Amino acid sequence: MEMLVERPSALSFDSSENQKMIAQMVRDFGSREIKPFIMEWDEKQIFPVELFNEMGSLGLMGVLVPEEYGGAGFGYEEYITAIIELSKIDGSIGLSMAAHNSLCTNHILHFGNEEQKRKYLPKLASGQWIGAWGLTEPNTGSDAGNMRTVAVKDGDYFILNGAKNFITHGKSGNVAVVIARTGAVGDSHGMSAFIIEKGTPGFTSGKKENKLGMRASETAELIFTDCKIHKSQMLGKEGEGFIQSLKILDGGRISIAALSVGIAEGAYEAALQYSKERHQFNQAISKFQGIAFKLADMATKIEAAKLLTYRAGELKNAGKEVNKESAMAKLYASETAVDIANEAVQIFGGYGYTKDFPAEKYYRDAKLCTIGEGTSEIQKLVISRAILK
Ligand SMILES: Cc1cc2nc3c(=O)[nH]c(=O)nc-3n(C[C@H](O)[C@H](O)[C@H](O)COP(=O)(O)OP(=O)(O)OC[C@H]3O[C@@H](n4cnc5c(N)ncnc54)[C@H](O)[C@@H]3O)c2cc1C
Description:
By secondary structure, the chain is α+β, with helices and mostly antiparallel strands.
């Protein structure tokens, strides 16, 4: 993607020319390449790998990656806009795009050395390769710092043993950034991050989850059995992996907030349209105040979620600390998405409960947003720690 004009000044939330161009491009692409297949991918849990390869050619797989590494070289405003527009169409595609960009790719971009960046970023940003990021384990999700996957030093190598679960692109990912324990349990500096390519001996994928929603986004287990990784594959220094991950999640949460806004907008727009078309008691149901007020609440909450999300994005672009702001955006936007998707099903009535209308899918997809990249309870922990400091 080519940079058209400067982004708007800080804290003005009008769309820039770049954002308008990206939104239109995503809408056109989505109508052509995603809309016709949404329900088939959802029902069969198909992860459409080729779609992501194509999204790479549009710049959507390396939105934040500088052009010198093959990316689009944009900032968070454009990134948020792209995820919102994509997630309005299909939340699972939005989730996969967010995980690829914010987690795997961004971890290498921010903590990789020049050689690692030159080797991996062009492949990831072009969509030729799909990235995964493994922090969560079966017994340690919110408490990820207590992980048990180990990386034991052996000369110039580390030997990894253990498993990661719920990993987006756990099977189809060509490369994964994996956090493993290199020090004592309980030491936040006792974990390190490694870049591990698919096909490395001892690195396999396990169970693919059968999920409530986000079904076109692949979620699977990563398994390490005496997996030998050269020390040159470590990101940053030994012991920095967990602290790096927390920083990566600060940015990642902005993308989950954007995902939430997109799902909420999609559900709201479908419900708004339906409310004008559906007649009961000889009038459109939108004429009933009970329905109109629901729509008013939905529109207001979406606006608030958007403001929090773009605000966190602007701060991140400016290089400011966003730990609290990204948690607030993620918390509010994700809870709002669930709430709005629920109301959308209600406005559709019985039809909202069927797969012939889009409301039920927004409802199922939205729920992931309050769980992935830290549950709502964990966001409250982050926010309360920041305000009670
Ligand atoms: C579709 C999907 C995709 C995912 N993708 C990835 C990925 O790509 N990479 C990755 O590493 N992980 C990924 N995850 C994992 C995700 O980040 C975790 O599921 C999430 O962090 C929660 O962990 P858990 O599932 O183990 O729940 P738990 O941590 O067991 O939490 C269970 C409940 O306890 C609550 N709880 C826990 N601790 C506290 C506390 N201190 N105070 C109050 N309440 C608390 C939680 O909020 C939750 O309600 C994904 C998950 C899903 C479902």
